[in-house]
Amino acid sequence: MTAAARLLETLAQWGVEHVFCCPGTSEIPVLEALATRRGGPEFVLTTHEAISVSMADGYARASGRIGVAYLHTNVGVANGLAHLYAAQVARSSVAILAGIKGTATLPHRALTTSPRLLETAAPYVGHAWQNLRAEDLLEDLSRTLWHTTIVPEQPAILTIPQDHLTAEPGVAPPVRRGARQGPAAEAVRHSSALLDAARRPVIVAGSDVARRRAEADLARLAERLGAPVFVESRRDLERWSFPTYHPHYAGLFEPRAPLLAEADLLVLAGMPTPLEFSAEVAALPPGVPILHVSEDAAEPGRRYVPAGAVVGDTAAVLRGLAEGIRAPSRDEWLARVRKDSEARRARWEAEVPWDGEFSAALAMRTLADVIGGERLLVLDAVTSTLPLLRFLQRTRADSLFATASGSLGWGMGAAAGVAMARRERVLAVVGDGVVQFGVPAFWTVVRYRLPVTYLVVNNGKYQAVVAGLKKSGGDRAEYPLTDISGVEISALAQAFGIKATTVDDVDGLRAALAEDPEDGPRLIEVRVNDRLWQ
């Protein structure tokens, strides 16, 4: 049995159900093994490596399994790097297998061969290795898969020479998983004391709360502490981690909100240090002491020195903190924050009235009103995501996936991966710029009849760049290199075989969302004006 055939067996032993692949000639031994193999894993064909990686990422997030993408040589890896960065930011368990040319060509200037391929991918992974001997291939593969399960999870990459796939393999080691780390008792005691002493605490729910299914643990901590809970800001959000119906829910975290400056303890619960957009704009309220709960020991203190930190499994830490505090009454503080949250929502509703012009903000308010809190969502609409999150309700745990990476096009493939993992319809809210980056996803969702509804907010612009230009120099007659209009997105989708419709008002959007879609993909193009709401 060839190493390629044993490679497939090893993937199956690790519970890998799908491999997302845009193949080339270096993968021929694997394709030959697939032709004669019975059983999994299923190789899912994509027509661009970026889609392979984003599908693997979406699948990994939604399933809790390892998402595997098989890429072709240096050119395929290069095509997948942007979305590999998205997986890294999200701490997603993604394994990249890259088929490279045979070992005899590697020292030379051969076609699609780079002597520094692993250096290209290294900034975006936690483990990078090239298989050096055919007899070590299965060991190297298992080690690569294992590294994606080590907490904090990170992507990993293994390059595999073509001639090693046809050689006689060694023995695959047993399947093993990375262990989670329990929190140190002293750190929990110190942090509990900080919580006891605080009179105006605020909790920010990070993505690890959803990743570890710890929503109930966070709710118990908030209830015992009497603290309001915010969900990560739009810039940091990877998955939604707290139900909006909970009496302690206070909305999206906005660091510059005036009331937050009055807090005397900011609890970052299950999240990395917030991403900086610029050094001039504070990512956290200045001067407020921080208690940082993280699964990555490198995160607390990365940007702000915390008053306290607990490193360990998010669910275990939250349970330990809830048990360790005396829970003095903070009803007045919670009521003030909740009242402020309700006032902000009322202000947003007044700014985006139902009878106003059909802007992206009004389209997103309509969407939030129609879909309720249960729909499975993938968000990759740069300037439309914020208004959607402001109006959105979430009642279902771990049902929203987004990206803070800035890697345009991610949502097109990620939605397909989420649909494969959850086996239910996914609503992917994407921008028109995102579609133009991710067009190859259309072929794959049609080929595999995946239940994805793409809702495309089409304003004909790179609106985020327009916003940057306005902040830099104010309103102007022209915004260079921002006009991307001219594409009939519905017609483009129909060319791939997707049922598509175009709407341009609230009633049309409500009607389109009310339709019960058949199996397979669907697209709703929502044409809005170019008014930007932030």
Automatic annotation (TrEMBL):
Classification via InterPro entries: DHS-like_NAD/FAD-binding_dom, THDP-binding, Thiamin_PyroP_enz_cen_dom, Thiamin_PyroP_enz_TPP-bd_dom, TPP_enz, TPP_enzyme_TPP-bd
Show the CDD domains listed in the entry.
TPP_PYR_POX_like
Q: Does the keyword Membrane apply?
A: no
Q: Report which superkingdom the organism of origin falls in.
A: Bacteria
Thiamine pyrophosphate enzyme central domain ranges (all copies)? 193-321
- The Thiamine pyrophosphate enzyme TPP-binding domain, residue ranges: 388-526
> Mind telling me what this protein is named?
Thiamine pyrophosphate-binding protein
Q: Which organism is it from?
A: Amycolatopsis halotolerans
Its taxonomic placement starts with: Bacteria, Bacillati, Actinomycetota, Actinomycetes, Pseudonocardiales
